[in-house]
C-alpha cells in the first residue's frame, strides 16, 4: 500500500542513496509534476543517542519483578537521554541552511526537524527526488517515487527524511456484514454486552482526576460529537459516562464522520467510561506530510499526554525501510518509558498475504516489540453471550524484521511445539520473529452510531482495540487513586500472568493464502498463547485485581 524505501542504501562518492521502489498503489493516480514553487514540509529524523540504554530502562520500568518497576521518566529525562549530539544538530542544520532552508521547527527531544521549502529546493537538497501529485477519491498528496540521496557527511546523522515516499492506505480495517436476527437473542455487540462478557459492573467507571485516554486517527477520519452523544444516549444508560471528548488535537474535518473514528471513540469511552478522552486527528497540514509520523512527532513534544493510546492503523513491513522501522520503534520506546501504553490493532488476516512469482508467502504489519497488539474474537453463538472463538479476520503471526523479545520466548516456543502439527510450512513465517497479537477482545458485530445513523454488524480488530484500551484505562484509574504509577508498557507484565485473568480462546483459525499447501488456513488458536488471539480476552474483574496492585 505504500511506496517503500529499501533497506539497502548505497554510498556513491559524496552522496548516500536511499533506494525506493517505483511501485505505486493501484488506487492512487499520478496527475503530474508539482509546480517548482509548491510549498512542502519535510521531516528530518536526526540520529538519537543512547537507544540501547533507553531500551534497557524501558524493560526495567516495565518488569514487575524489577526494583525499577513503574519509575517512569519525564519528557525532559527522555530528552536528556536521546537528544542528538551537538555535532549531529549542527551538521544537519548547517546542511539545510546551506540550501536556504531556515523555516524549521523542532521538538522537545530535538530529534525531529520539520522544515518548509519549495519542491525545487527539496529536489536540490535531495538529489534524485522528483515530486508529483497523486489523487484518490478527492484526496491529494505530494510524494516522490524516485530514489533520493543526501550528502555522505550528513547521512550518518539522519535516520530518514519523511514526506517523500509513503502513500496512505485506502482506509481502515472495519467492515459491515448483515446477519439475520433471532427473537430473544442479542442483536449485536453493545457496551452492555461487553460489560456482561468481560465482567465489568456498572460501578467500573473512572474517577481519578489525573487519568486520561486517547484514540488516534490518520486517514482523514473524524468523529461527530452528535454521534457520540446519541451513542451514549442509546447504549450508556446503565453506567456513569461522559458524552463529550475533552480535547481534540489537530483539526476536525467538516465532512462526514468516519466509521472507524466513530467506532474507536464510542467504544473507548463506553468501556473506559467516565475517563477524560482525547482525540488525535492527523490528516497532515500539508500534502507532503505523513499523518502517522506527525503523531509520533507530537508525542515527542507534549509533556502532558493521555496514559493509554489506541491505534487502529498499521503499515506492512515489506513497505518500509529498516531505518524507518527502527526509528519508529525507538519512538515507541520513548512513549513506554514515560508510562504510556500504546495499543495497536492486529489488522485483518486476509490483508497479510502476497504472491511472489507464484509462490505464496506471508508478510505482516509493521510490528514493534514495544507496543501491545490486539487481536479479534467472535461469540461461538453470534446471538448469545457465550464463550469466544477466533474471529477469522484477526491478524496474527510473526515479524520478519523484529526479533522475538525475551518476554514472549517461553510462551511462543510452547505454542510452536504443541501446535506443530497444525502450523503452516516454516517457509511461510519467521519462527524467530516478534509474535503477535498479545491479547484479544470481541471484534465482530458491533453497533456504531455514525452520521446520526445507528449501524449494526461493524467488525474488525479496530473494534477490539479500544475495548481493551478502555479496560486498561480503568485499571490505571485504580492505580492512580492508590498513588501507584500507570501501567505503561504492558507486555512484560502481561506475559508473566501466563494467561491468568484472561479467557483462553482455543477454537478457530484465521485466513491465509489460498494456495495448494495451506488452502486458506492460517494460524489456529490453542491453549495459552497463540498467534491469533494472544493470551485471550480480559476477565476484567480478575485482571484488575492482578494489575491494580
TrEMBL record:
Alphabetic keyword roster: Autocatalytic cleavage, Calcium, Disulfide bond, Glycoprotein, Hydrolase, Lysosome, Metal-binding, Protease, Serine protease, Signal, Zymogen
Location in the cell: Lysosome
Domain Peptidase S53: 188-549
GO BP terms in the entry: central nervous system development; proteolysis
Keyword Lyase: no
Top-level taxon of origin: Eukaryota
Cofactor: Ca(2+)
InterPro entries found in the cross-reference section: Peptidase_S8/S53_dom_sf, S53_propep, Sedolisin_dom, Tripeptidyl-peptidase_I
MF annotations from Gene Ontology: metal ion binding; serine-type endopeptidase activity; tripeptidyl-peptidase activity
Reactions catalysed according to its record: Release of an N-terminal tripeptide from a polypeptide, but also has endopeptidase activity
Positions of the catalytic residues: 260, 264, 462
GO cellular component: lysosome
Enzyme Commission designation: 3.4.14.9
Keyword Secreted assigned: no
PANTHER family: PROTEASE S8 TRIPEPTIDYL PEPTIDASE I CLN2 (PTHR14218), TRIPEPTIDYL-PEPTIDASE 1 (PTHR14218:SF15)
Function: Lysosomal serine protease with tripeptidyl-peptidase I activity. May act as a non-specific lysosomal peptidase which generates tripeptides from the breakdown products produced by lysosomal proteinases. Requires substrates with an unsubstituted N-terminus.
Protein's name in the database: Tripeptidyl-peptidase 1
Record lineage: Eukaryota, Metazoa, Chordata, Craniata, Vertebrata
